[in-house]
Amino acid sequence: MQLKKMGAAAAVLTALVAAPHAAQAQDTIELSMATPWSGGHWLEIGANRYAEIVEQVTGGRVKINVFPAGTLGPALKVTETVQMGIADMGHAWGGYDWSVDRTSALFGGWPGGPNPEEYMMWLYNGNGLELWKEWRDDVFDVVAIPCGVTETEIFMHAHRPVRTPEDLKGLKLRTSSAWAEIAPKLGVSTVVLPGSEVFSALERKVVDAIEWGGPGGNMQEGFDKIAPYMMMPGLHSPGAVHDCIVNKAVWAKIPENDQKLMELAGKMTMLETYLGYAKMDIAAYETMKKDSPAEMIVVDDSLVTAVAEASSEWASEQAAANEWFKKVYEDQSSFLKSISGLSEFRFAPGSRY
After folding, report:
1. Per-residue CA distances from 236 to 179, 210, 290, 309, 339 (Å)
2. Residue 260 sits in a domain of what CATH number?
3. Do 37 and 93 touch, CB atoms closer than 8 A?
4. Domain total in the chain
5. 351: in domain
6. Does residue 271 lie in a domain region?
7. How would you label 181-214 residue by residue, b for 16+ Cβ within 10 Å and e otherwise?
8. Which domain holds residue 82?
9. Residues marked as binding for substrate?
10. Which residues contribute to the annotated binding site?
11. From first to last of its 353 residues, what are the pLDDT tens digits of the chain?
């Protein structure tokens, strides 16, 4: 049965890729992509790889030109840049849209949300994908293609150690999205800054601590070289997903067959980012354990519990005031409960050695 499904899927892909060649008449469509990334793995393994896969599966009929942060519009305004037609499409992270609609945090990653594997299951085995597309269309008037699952992040790099809930009190933290509202419930003062300002803010001690990404990205940035403490695990962001959003007028000009291939490329890039970020993070973490001057701290269970409780309280507040949030939150929570049995018969990655 499984082989039949795989064979059918392969046949569909072959048909989609081959069909336009019969016409031999379609011109190349070039699309501009805005991103919030000035460099690093989310640009290279994420946005650039999606563009490469789209060009490959469409046989060169669709070409995406990827631009780093600030080139086509403000780094934190990628969605707005695409809405206005300044960019044809964008490589977006929902967390940067949370000021418009807090539902974005449920897709972009939040303390009570899925890890990378759970996000992919929710998207493709549950209702996540359809909810995401409907939400982006309804709230932002853009077409959404999930196109990358990110790593579990380092909890923070800081100038002072954090182990317990008491250690968070009075901490000035650079963060974004849901954690920017949840952390203050635990006594934290939060500051939202674009990626280009994070390193200097930590180095000059404008903030006491920052959160950014996983070991791979953070080692590239050098955060462990300028702050003496690194806290784990990533309570604030167990996982997240990026989406490739397209201006609706631009989307309408793309032939339906190539639209389907662009969506397929998103699913393919989900796998490549999952594997690519994991490979990068594992290598970086081993290097940091040997060479980093920072002290690595695993936070106490009391802090894990406190973050979970504060996150649940925040989510309940949002659900009471926002119908989209309520709809997505209830569906996501229900799905996560439905797969709890995985922990009973499967080993967690890396847990046996």
Report:
1. 6, 12, 25, 12, 21
2. 3.40.190.170
3. no
4. 1
5. no
6. yes
7. bbbeebebebeebbbeebbeebeeeebbbbbbbb
8. 26-151+239-279
9. 153, 174, 211
10. 153, 174, 211-212
11. 444 443 444 444 544 444 444 334 468 999 999 999 888 888 888 999 999 999 999 999 999 999 999 999 998 899 999 999 999 999 999 888 988 999 999 999 999 999 999 999 999 999 999 999 999 999 999 999 999 999 999 999 999 999 999 999 999 999 988 999 999 999 999 998 877 799 999 999 999 999 999 999 999 999 999 999 999 999 999 999 999 999 999 999 999 999 999 999 999 999 999 999 999 999 999 999 999 999 999 999 999 999 999 999 999 999 999 999 999 999 999 999 999 999 999 998 888 88
pTM reported for the whole predicted model = 0.88
Residue 159 identity: H
Residues annotated within the binding site for Na(+) are 212
Residue from 90, 106, 337 nearest 241 by CA: 106
